[in-house]
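Lab meeting minutes (informal)
Scribe: AK
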Amino acid sequence: MRRSKALNVKRHFLPEGITGIIIALYVYTIIYITTVNIPNDYLNTSQLYEEEILIDCTDGISSNISLIPKIIHQTFRPESEDELPPNMTKALHTFKYLNKDYEHRYYGNKAALQVLIDHFGADSDEVFAFENLTPAAFKIDFWRYAVLWLFGGFYADADMVLLEPLDSWIHTNATFVIPLEPSQPSFGLSVSFIGSIPCHPLLRIAMDMVIYNVKHKYYPSVPRRLSKRNWILSVFAVSGSVLMGKVFNRFMNEPEEAPHNLPLARQRSFQILGFCKKSAKSMDQHLMTEASPDDMTECKGMKVAQFRYEGYFEDRAGVPFTTLYRLKKVFKN
C-alpha cells in the first residue's frame, strides 16, 4: 500500500488554547474508528498517521480570533488567475475584497497536484486518488479535503460569490463549518464551502473513504431513503455531498443513513450553514447562516453567499461529471 511521507507540520497560526481541542478531536476519531462498525475495507485504507504527524501549536495567534486559520483556498484549471473567465475572476475577487486580512491562495491544475506531492509524496495514496479520478469535480472534492486537512482555512468553489465578510458570520469558536446539501429528504453536506482547523479528523475520514473508492473503483450506494429520488444523488456518493453526509455521521458516531444530528454537531464546535434554494436560477440559490433541513425554500438567517454566478455553466468546459458517472468512467483504468 502506498504511504504518505512523514509530515512535520508546524501550526503557527493556531492559538495555544486549542491544543487540547486538536488532541481531543484526534483521539476521538481513533476511538471512533476502532469501536464503530465500519466496513473492513474502509478500515484497511484508514491512514491516521498517529506516529507520523508532529503538530506544534505553541506559537499561535491570540485566542480571541477564530480558531480556523485566515486562509482562503480556491482552484480552477488555469495556472494564473489572469486566465480565468471574467465572471469567475469577479467571483474570486469577492472573497479577496471582503476579507482583506485573509491570505487568498489560488491553485491551478498543476499547483493543486503539486501541493499533494509536496506534502504527501509522489507515490502516496493521496496523489494516487487525485490522479486516478477522471471528473475534475471529483478530483477537487478530494483535493479540498486534503488541503484543508493540511493547512486549515476556508475552501470555496470558484463559482461562488461572497456577499458578506467571513468575520461577520463565522463563529469565533467554530472548528468546522459546512452547509447542508439542498436535497429532500435532507441528507448530505454540501462541499461547495468548507471551513476547518488543520488536521480535523473528519477530513481524514473523508480522504480515506475517497481513497478506498478510487483504489477499488467502487461506486457507493446512497442512503435507502434517498434511493427513490433521481439517480443524480448517487453521483455525489463517490466523493461529494452524499459521501460527506456519511462521513459526518461516522464522525458523530451515528448510523450512517440517519438524519444528521445538528444539535450534537453544534455542541462539538461545528457551524452548520443553511442552503436556500428558491428556484433553479443561480441568483436564487444562497448559503444562509441558519440551517433549515426540512424546507430548502425557507431562507433563515443572513444571506452570506450566492451559490454560483450567472453564466457559470457557459464558462465550464469538458465532459460533465454526470455524463462520466453514467458511463462508469469515474475512475481511470
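Next up, CB showed the second protein from the same session:
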Amino acid sequence: MGPVFGPTTPLTTAAPTERSDAARNRQLLLDAAQQLVRADGVDALTMDALAKHAGVGKGTVFRRFGNRAGLLHALLDHSDRKFQAAFMFGPPPLGPGAPPVERLVAFGRARLSGIDIEGAMRRSAESGEGGARYTGAPYNTLKAHIMMLLRETPVHGDIPLLADILLAPLDSGLVMAQLATGSYTIEQIGDAWERVVRELAPATGQ
C-alpha cells in the first residue's frame, strides 16, 4: 500500500505491532478520505478537512502523506487495492464463483460505479502518466484479470488485445467526458459494456 511515513521503528519484538498499528492508522485515514470525496467531491479533500473528519491532528496527516498530492495518489492506490480485493476474493458475480462472462459484466459495472466520484482524481493522475500508465501495475492487474476470464471462455484471438479493447470504454477520461456532455449516463455505459461482453461470448459458443 506504499510506505508508512514516520520515525524508523527499532528492531525489537514490538516492531511488528508498531508497523501493524501504523498501517492500520493509515488505512483509517484513507477510509476517511474516501468518505469525504464521496460526500463532497475531490475539491473538498484537503489536509485540514481530512484531519478534522478523522479526528486527528493535521501534523499526523502531513506525516503520513507529505502533501495533498501525496494524499490523492495514496487514495487512488487505496481505491485500486479495494477494487482488486473485490474481484479477486470477494463474493460473486464480481468475485470467484460466477461464470466468466457474468464476472466480466460485473467487473465493468463495478469499475464504473464510483467513477463519477473518483473520476476527476483518477483522470488527473492518469493524464500525467501518458503511455506509461499502460505498463504500470494498476492497469496491468486489471488487464491480467480480464485476460484470465477471457481464457475461461471459448474466445479465440489475441487475448491481450481483446483485454485492452474491453478496458478502453472504462477509461476514466472518456467516461468523465461522456458524463460531462450529458451524452450518456453511467447506467447506459454499463449496459453498453454488458452488450459488448455478451456479444463477444456468444460469437464463440457461450
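CB comment: DSSP finds ten helices and no strands in the chain.
No objections, moving on.
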